[in-house]
């Protein structure tokens, strides 16, 4: 029965989307069913077909190599600093050791520089366009929706919208929500590499799981958004996918420079968010503990305790083994209310321990996405800067996109759990 508990999860997730739908009669069940089928096919290929699984494992090892190359740059900059290499041994940073701020910054910068180079030569656009055409053919969604959702699996949530900038002014509200949802359900390549490295440091092989999560999130976001906000208008990009491959950079050196600079901004934003959020969490936990002990000396209230209770039904319905349900529920709560970085940090540091392989896989996929409250604000501001005339629509759709992105990640995790 444990394997099929996830069927309750699928029913719960789709049921919530259906209850929140603004036009239940207009739901296109062909889009919903084809999107679910696409998610299942991706999961089956990755988890059940040996050569596909091996390919994804190779991609995972490739991601680890990227982190190693990034370390070469970081060791030049930070060489001479003493770091703990384990067991209390202090050594030079460039001879080993892991310092979160240094390693994370270097990895994000390198990946952003590589993406910029691929974009300059048109490689990124062609990969995105090829996958988007396949998804457009299978699901019969518009070209703009397919492009932005696929792009979100490679680049950041606002950068994905830049790829469809010519269409943003005329996109229907349903298309706009689908695009926003995909960006919140997926995760940028640079951040994905960082999470994989964090897992490797803790002895967890997260890379194949995270790549799978990002691929499954694109059709998953379309499934949920098309239930929540069915298409009732006429799309200008229905049935065709067209992406401009023109580079914004003058040459490859310009691409590397801009990519590295953008990566540095992202990395500093990640570090600032972590310092701020973790400090605020510590403050809130102290206040909650004090409040709880006013009523009972044994009542150890904390945010983790509260999240564990609120998200417990979701974790159970997704098929998480009983010994991990409370921990997974806690991480789900941290991801949506704080951010996914804090959730992954607590997962990989074992601050919130997940002990079973199935529980680890489900929670890794469920929290692999940008869907949190702060990202909604970033998305409204970022896309609003591209199309100021759509800012009101973006604001109205912001919380709906958060719900869609969250449910899409949960749907992917639940399907993967059933197949495990």
From TrEMBL:
Keywords: Cell membrane, Membrane, Transmembrane, Transmembrane helix. Its main location: membrane. The chain crosses the membrane at residues 6-22, 29-51, 98-122, 176-198, 266-290, 302-319, 360-387, 399-419. It is a multi-pass membrane protein. One of its GO terms (cellular component) is plasma membrane. The keyword Repeat does not apply. Coiled coil: none annotated. Residues 102-200 form the Nucleoside transporter/FeoB GTPase Gate domain. It is found in: Cell membrane. Residues 8-81 form the Concentrative nucleoside transporter N-terminal domain. Residues 210-417 form the Concentrative nucleoside transporter C-terminal domain. One of its GO terms (molecular function) is symporter activity. Pfam families: Gate, Nucleos_tra2_C, Nucleos_tra2_N. Belongs to the concentrative nucleoside transporter (CNT) (TC 2.A.41) family. This is Nucleoside permease. It comes from Solitalea canadensis (strain ATCC 29591 / DSM 3403 / JCM 21819 / LMG 8368 / NBRC 15130 / NCIMB 12057 / USAM 9D). The lineage of its organism: Bacteria, Pseudomonadati, Bacteroidota, Sphingobacteriia, Sphingobacteriales.
């Amino acid at each position: 029965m444990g394997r099929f508990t996830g069927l309750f999860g699928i029913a719960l997730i789709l049921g919530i989307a259906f209850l929140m739908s603004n036009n239940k009669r207009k739901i296109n069940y062909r889009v919903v069913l084809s999107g679910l089928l696409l998610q299942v096919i991706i999961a089956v290929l990755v988890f059940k077909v040996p050569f596909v699984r091996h390919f994804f494992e190779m991609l995972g090892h490739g991601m680890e190599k990227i982190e190693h190359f990034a370390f070469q740059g970081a060791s030049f900059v930070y060489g001479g600093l003493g770091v703990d290499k384990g067991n209390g041994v202090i050594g030079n940073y460039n001879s080993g050791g892991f310092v979160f701020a240094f390693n994370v910054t270097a990895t994000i910068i390198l990946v952003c520089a590589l993406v910029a180079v691929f974009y300059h030569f048109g490689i990124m656009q062609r990969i995105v366009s090829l996958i988007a055409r396949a998804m457009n053919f299978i699901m019969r969604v518009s070209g703009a929706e397919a492009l932005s959702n696929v792009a979100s699996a490679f680049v950041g949530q606002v950068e994905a919208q830049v790829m469809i900038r010519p269409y943003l002014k005329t996109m229907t509200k349903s298309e706009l929500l689908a695009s926003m949802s995909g960006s919140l359900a997926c995760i940028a390549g640079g951040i994905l590499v960082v999470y994989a490295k964090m897992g490797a440091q803790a002895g967890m092989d997260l890379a194949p799981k995270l790549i799978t999560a990002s691929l499954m999130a694109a059709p998953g976001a379309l499934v949920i958004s098309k239930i929540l906000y069915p298409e009732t208008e006429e799309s200008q990009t229905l049935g065709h996918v067209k992406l401009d491959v023109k580079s914004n950079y003058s040459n490859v050196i310009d691409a590397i420079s801009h990519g590295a600079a953008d990566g540095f901004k992202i990395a500093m934003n990640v570090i600032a968010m972590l310092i701020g959020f973790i400090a605020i969490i510590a403050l809130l936990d102290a206040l909650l503990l004090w409040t709880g002990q006013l009523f009972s000396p044994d009542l150890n209230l904390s945010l983790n305790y509260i999240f564990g209770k609120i998200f417990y039904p979701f974790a159970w319905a997704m098929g998480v083994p009983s010994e991990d349900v409370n921990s997974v529920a806690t991480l789900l709560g941290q991801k949506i209310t704080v951010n996914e970085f804090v959730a992954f940090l607590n997962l990989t540091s074992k601050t919130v321990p997940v002990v079973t392989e199935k529980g680890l896989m489900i929670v890794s996929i469920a929290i692999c996405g940008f869907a949190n409250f702060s990202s909604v604000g970033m998305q409204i501001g970022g896309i609003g800067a591209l199309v100021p005339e759509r800012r009101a629509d973006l604001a109205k759709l912001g919380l709906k996109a958060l719900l869609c992105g969250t449910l899409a990640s949960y749907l992917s995790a639940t399907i993967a759990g059933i197949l495990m």
